[in-house]
Amino acid sequence: MTAASRGIRRHGALRPLVAAFTAVILCACVASAGQASPTPGPEKLRKELAQLQKRSETMIAEYYAGRVELQKVEKTEKVARGNLKRAQQEFDKAATEIRLLAAEQYRTGGMNATFALVSVADPRALLSGLALTQQIMSEQDARLRVFMKVRDSRREAQKTAETRTAELRASLRKLDAQKRRAGKLIDQIKDKIDLLYPTPGLRRADGSWVPQLPSGPDNITPRMRLVRQLIAQRFGPRFGIGCYRSDGGISGGGEHPLGRACDFMLSSGGGFPSATETARGHEIVAWAIKNAQRLGIMYIIFRQRIWHVRTGTWRMMSDRGGTTANHFDHPHISVY
């Protein structure tokens, strides 16, 4: 029951799905209105987004139907567990009485001991002894019948509880599958939204990008600004994004003073990020690799490794002596 309850609480985190679907669709509308002639074209993307939105609405309806069904199964499972608990208590009590009865029979010698107490020479005493024995046997038989009834009730309660638990777990698996499908659909919608933003700057014939100068109050290039914007919209780093630094800071120069690099923090104060935040970092990195060619991303550093768009592979870096210096608490992304 504990594992099932954790699963139920876990599904409470799915409640923001509707907001997520709505937000990404609204972002798509705003983005398409403010951008000029992206490839493969805003009209085509709007059509695809409308189709995805229709699918998302169907999936949301299926999800909530599954939640209602899950709540019903959860309630019946809880009742079954309560019945089993009460049946177990009654069974334990009856079992104790039967053990005491057996012990008493063993101690007194049962029917033989009863007959030993009367004189066979006295018919009246014999009849009295027989009546006493019959009464004892009747009482024992009644107690045994009660015990067997309690035992059978407990077995039935246990069987019902196991059935309801199995139904609950099946419902949780179904909701997990719905969550995964919805998550994939959200990613597809977000991918379409990303394509509505054309990458700033000029691209050479060989596929490389012409460097840009930083501008604006944040002192970063338009290309870096777009990458920062898309990552912030999609992943929302909770601990901030650091880009321009006049001295390069912990990264030792590089593109930070040029406005061509940003750090997407997963923790604060140099602390090691949680498992959830580390997973967020891996998601940011996977997205950046997927979009590197289109967005002009040059290299990525994360968890003491560096990935370069030229090679498309990771390599280890030397130990710089700390969580932040080794990029365990943030992915670093540099653009051309």
Describe this structure in a few short sentences.
Helix content is 62%, strand content 7%.
Structural description of this entry:
The protein is of the alpha+beta class and 336 residues long. It folds into two domains: 2-195, Orthogonal Bundle (Helix Hairpins); 222-335, no CATH class. It has eight helices and six strands, in the order H-H-H-H-H-H-E-E-H-H-E-E-E-E. It has helices at 2-12, 17-34, 42-108, 110-116, 123-195, 222-235, 275-290, 292-295, and strands spanning 241-242, 261-264, 297-302, 305-308, 313-316, 332-335. The protein has a six-stranded antiparallel β-sheet. A hairpin with a 2-residue loop joins strand 3 and strand 4. Helix 2 (17-34) packs antiparallel against helix 3, helix 2 (17-34) packs parallel to helix 5 (123-195) and helix 3 packs antiparallel against helix 5. It is elongated, with a radius of gyration of 36 Å. It starts with a helix and ends with a strand. Residues 1-38 and 113-120 have low confidence and may be disordered.
